[in-house]
Structure to design on (321 residues):
């Protein structure tokens, strides 16, 4: 099967991630069927799709007419057979648990053609393990999205030890065709690429705050109004490329080397976030929120609204919306 032949997509598991994938696929004019195990979950997915569409309308991404058309086009079902029988691609977004995912694999395989590609949204489980009892493990891959997948372009593609390279290529092309930015992991790595990078940064936030160098608020400001602005445009290596002037990143690293090696020697290298840091971080965030206006978010709801509004503007600049 070729990537452009993927026209019907089934979203199996319609929670936080599943609903958002369903919405994105519908926005890309694919036929979408949403499956979950009970009516409440399907109703919640419908409500979340509606609310996300309202945000997209408010930010001039979609017209009201287009949004109504999309909403009507999505099919919801409690029947796995109906959900997957005609799909060329199935996106599994069930709970992050091997037993449940394996049970889902068994169910999905019962009703689907062997041509169908089955993708897991898993944040860190191994594809090899998820499909260890599968009849056709070669058509299973991981496609890890970032929340919310209907906005964030990154998809980390992971393989199991029996995944076919053809399936990886077709999936990569499919995500590219629908406007995503897929990257394929060359080998399995816990936490994939992006969560590891995020956690390396957060370990340092944790250490700086615990040592009393800065507050949570100042660490947030440092990232938001400093390197975060550049990272929203290009990756850290390209930033260093410019930092090195005519000598590029090689020159920048050479130049920073002696100092950077001293910082590195002094930086956190712990292997576990200290348990007590959860409360320290929460108290720091509570203080930070008191110093913000509602316009830029000072509680969870206004913060999420501000994040989505700014994200949409940034995505427009990247020609991703
Ligand atoms: N939440 C995130 O930020 C995030 C980001 C990237 C990837 N993920 C991954 O996406 C997957 C889903 O996470 P989520 O946050 O959407 O979880 P969630 O709890 O919001 O949703 C899971 C959904 O699966 C349904 N479900 C349970 N058993 C099922 C079954 N047997 N068949 C079909 N559906 C079933 C539940 O009813 C629920 O609607 C997980 O693997 C998670 O690791 C989550």
């Amino acid at each position: 099967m070729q990537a452009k032949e993927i026209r019907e997509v089934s979203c199996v598991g319609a929670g936080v991630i599943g609903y958002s994938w369903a919405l994105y696929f519908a926005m890309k004019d694919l036929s979408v069927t949403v499956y979950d195990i009970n009516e409440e979950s399907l109703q919640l997915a419908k409500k979340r799709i509606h609310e996300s569409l309202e945000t997209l309308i408010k930010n001039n991404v979609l017209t009201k007419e287009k949004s109504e058309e999309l909403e009507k086009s999505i099919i919801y079902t409690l029947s796995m057979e109906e959900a997957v029988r005609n799909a060329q691609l199935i996106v599994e977004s069930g709970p992050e648990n091997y037993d449940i995912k394996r049970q889902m694999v068994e169910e999905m395989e019962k009703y689907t053609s062997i041509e169908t590609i089955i993708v897991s949204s898993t944040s860190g489980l191994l594809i090899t393990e998820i499909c260890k009892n599968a009849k056709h493990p070669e058509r299973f891959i991981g496609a890890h999205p970032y929340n919310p997948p209907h906005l964030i372009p990154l998809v980390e593609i992971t393989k199991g030890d029996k995944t076919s390279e053809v399936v990886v290529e077709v999936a990569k092309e499919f995500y590219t065709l629908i406007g995503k930015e897929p990257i394929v992991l060359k080998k399995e790595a816990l936490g994939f690429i992006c969560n590891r990078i995020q956690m390396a940064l957060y370990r340092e936030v944790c250490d700086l705050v615990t040592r009393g160098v800065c507050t949570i608020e100042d660490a947030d400001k440092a990232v938001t109004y400093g390197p975060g602005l550049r990272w929203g445009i290009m990756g850290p290596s390209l930033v260093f490329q410019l930092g090195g002037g005519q000598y590029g990143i090689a020159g920048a690293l050479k130049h920073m080397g002696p100092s950077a090696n001293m910082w590195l020697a002094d930086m956190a290298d712990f292997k576990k976030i200290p348990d007590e840091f959860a409360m320290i971080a929460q108290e720091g965030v509570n203080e930070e929120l008191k110093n913000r206006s509602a316009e830029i978010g000072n509680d969870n709801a206004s913060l999420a609204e501000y994040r989505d509004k700014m994200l949409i503007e940034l995505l427009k600049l990247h020609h991703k919306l």
Observations:
- Strands lie at 8-12, 31-35, 75-77, 89-92, 117-120, 140-145, 154-159, 181-184.
- The longest helix spans residues 39-58.
- The radius of gyration is 22 Å.
